[in-house]
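In this section we walk through a basic example: taking a raw amino acid sequence and producing a predicted 3D structure, encoded as discrete structure tokens. The instruction is simple. Fold the sequence below.
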Amino acid sequence: MTAKLLRLLAAWLLVLASAGVLAQYPSRPIKLIVPIPPGGAPDIAARVVGQKLSEILGVPVVVDNHAGSNGNIAGDLVAKSPPDGYTLLLGQDSLVAINPHLYAKMPFDPLKDLAPVATLVANQFVLAVNPSLPVKNFQEFIEYARHTTPPLAYASGGDGSQHHLSMEILKQRAGIDMLHVPFKGGSPATMATVAGDTAAMFAGTSTSAQIKAGKLRTLAVTGAKRSPEYPDLPTIGEFYPGYEVTIWLALFAPAGTPDAVLVPLRAAVDKALAAPDVGQKLNSAGGVEPFVTTPEEFAALIRRDYDKYGKIVKTIGIRLD
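The resulting token sequence is shown next.
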């Protein structure tokens, strides 16, 4: 037998062996890598959905937290794992759509080295201001910001964070100037706005206690439609058509993961998100809603957000090492 025939035979044996393994998928525990420490909304979502996936798939889904570098550490770990469906990533939209524009060097290419599996949950920001600011609604805020000297200061969770970029996009659309004050996370940004050190911020679900206590005044939301949590607040898109910031989390696998794995995974995710107890747990614990899309819609969402954030990062000239 020639060397060429031997190589072909070896390749076919590998294919047949792989097919046998994939036909049994999943047959052992699945590791779900989460890019933040335990306790935050993405971690809660991973544990709620992971528990339901374990029930559906019949194997343990083990949450493994690998925080750091805005998700790049966790993303790189999954990107370099075997494409067999046993190491998955709970990926934040910022990892896929913002980091490639923000970092001078990425350890991997999120668009090429990760395979989108399914969207999991979504949320939106709420524009919140210190109650001492003499504005009662979104229109008054824009007019006040337009004529205030020196410019109003706004807080964010850090340079290049979605809090930051969302406000920069609003500044462009509304033709206003504001001073960016970055903090190391959403919590200190919230504290600064509550204290009046900064006038405004785009707030996430972690600020609901301060909002309910009247320590922050809400003016508008960033999603494509009004929020069930704040039904009386308008979307910013009602004033500036096309403005939308939806925060989402999704499941990713290493690139090259075969359809024999991706298809049952997608089906299991859809089934998990349809379970009433999952929706209730996600909303009460993390303030997020189940977010189901088709593979085509998911791909379009990634491309849209990648382009949107890429333009604003380039315009304001942010770069991280």
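Looking at the output, two observations stand out. The CA atoms of residues 196 and 312 lie 27 Å apart. The two ends are 54 Å apart (CA to CA). In the next section we compare this with other chains.
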